[in-house]
Amino acid sequence: MNQFNYVNSISESGVYVFTDLDGTLLGHHDYQYAPVLPAIEQLKQFGIPLILNSSKTFAEISQWLDRLDLQPPFIAENGGVIYFSKEDPQQKYLLGRDYAEIRTILGQIREQYNWRFTGFGDCSVEEVMASTSLDYESAAMAKRRAVSEPISWQDSDANLLKFKQALEHHDLRLLKGGRFYHVMSHHDKASALKWVVERSESARNNPSDPGVQQTAFNVFGRSPYIVALGDGENDRRMLEEADLSLILPAQKGNTLKIDKKSAFEADKPAPEGWAEAVQQHLLIPLNSQLERQ
Known about the structure:
By secondary structure, this protein is α/β, with parallel strands linked by helices.
């Protein structure tokens, strides 16, 4: 994949931050984000890339890059696609399975078993709006999928288990997100995270590149140092993969639990909780190190 430019994902400090969007960086219902902007600006000052890693689509995340003043790369559809441009969706690396193929398989399963579920591909833009609180334009973008299908399950728990088994027969899987289940291939946010970091570190360590600061090693004892923020079950593997895991409170049900010492739960929901967790667990230690130098 040498045709892609990794400059925007190379960390000058050796620290990488990957974050989910809905319910993590963005308010779960109102999609508010203003409180996170000062922390994002501080990350830039430290040379730390903030990489969006979401179940959202190319079109949706591209808009959020503009609003948050961020650059590619970004990870879409639960790790299924890594994009290197916010203007050209063809500049990508595909880890997932084609959306049309997934829709065909879901149609076959529905016809065979008559289970009750609704995918985004079954819905009008207005119906997606009603289930997500998105405006018309955003809901239309959410329907433009590449490698995954969000579904609402309206059948029994027993049939949900059978549905998962039917998907496995087609080499697909079902992943629970914050709002929907996601039908997808065998990829996740963690596999895409690792792909980005490995390529970025390889480019950073190229002998022709200028030297970089080893802030990560000096402050945290390792480089690269990976931070991940999430709130849903589809964030679990990403949070487990990271060196520092910051978990936002769940809107419904129990907050996600990650069994490791370097996992911390934010005190407040998004977006305030995101900003405060990044300050407390990342920016304050970095600033303290800078003051000692």
